[in-house]
Amino acid sequence: MTTRPHQAKQPVSAALAGPYGHPFHPMLVTIPIGAWAAGLAFDIASQFVADPRFLSQGAMWLIAIGVVGALGAAMAGFLDLFAIPTATRAFRLALIHMTLNLLATVAYLGNFLWRYSEAVTGGVPAGPLALNAASFLALAVAGWLGGRLSYRYGVRVADEATQAEGFAPAGRTH
């Protein structure tokens, strides 16, 4: 059975996953990535200031915002996964991407609950800070794989004819 590359580029539902060529998943991932990156920066900064409470509290709530944002991004990403033909490299890569992101999200949820239950008032303790850093590393690997899905395999981005149009000599129009 052969699969056609353009099959992985059509949305399951344009209303839920985003229109063809403009999927919602890559737009939505900026919320958890930004929140979690800022949370890690706050965690690190909390180790170097005289009164770190605002940074510790900020990091905890940024982690929570990231978890909520990740749930929205995951729903859109799951719809994108349905568009990829099974038994392909892109599908296997998408499963690894999804698994790493789910593991990172669960780790961040655990991190939030850990911090919330202990009511951290000083600098962030070593355990939650290490969990934050490890979770962010998993997120970075998952993001790299997601970029590979989009940029290498063109999943949900554009069909080959549209991509070729961008590489035609500048004087030609179609």
Give the oligomeric state.
single chain
The main sheet comes to: none
- β-strand percent reads under 5%
How would you sum up the global shape? Answer: elongated
SS class = mainly alpha
Tally of alpha and pi helices: 7
Averaged pLDDT: 85
The total strand number stands at: 0
Q: Uncertain runs with pLDDT below 50, 5 residues or more?
A: none
Distance, first to last CA = 34 Å
Rounded Rg = 19 Å
How do the SSEs run, as a string of H and E?
Answer: HHHHHHH
Helix content: 55-70%
Describe what this molecule looks like in 3D.
The chain has 7 helices and no strands. By secondary structure, the chain is mainly alpha-helical. Helix 3 runs antiparallel to helix 4. It is elongated and about 60 Å long.
What features would you highlight for this structure?
0% strand, mainly alpha, 174 residues, 7 helices
Topology:
Elements: H1 14-17, H2 24-28, H3 30-45, H4 53-83, H5 89-118, H6 126-152, H7 160-165
Helix pairs in contact: 3-4, 3-6, 4-5, 5-6
Give a summary of the structure in a few sentences.
The chain is mainly α. It has helices at 14-17, 24-28, 30-45, 53-83, 89-118, 126-152, 160-165.
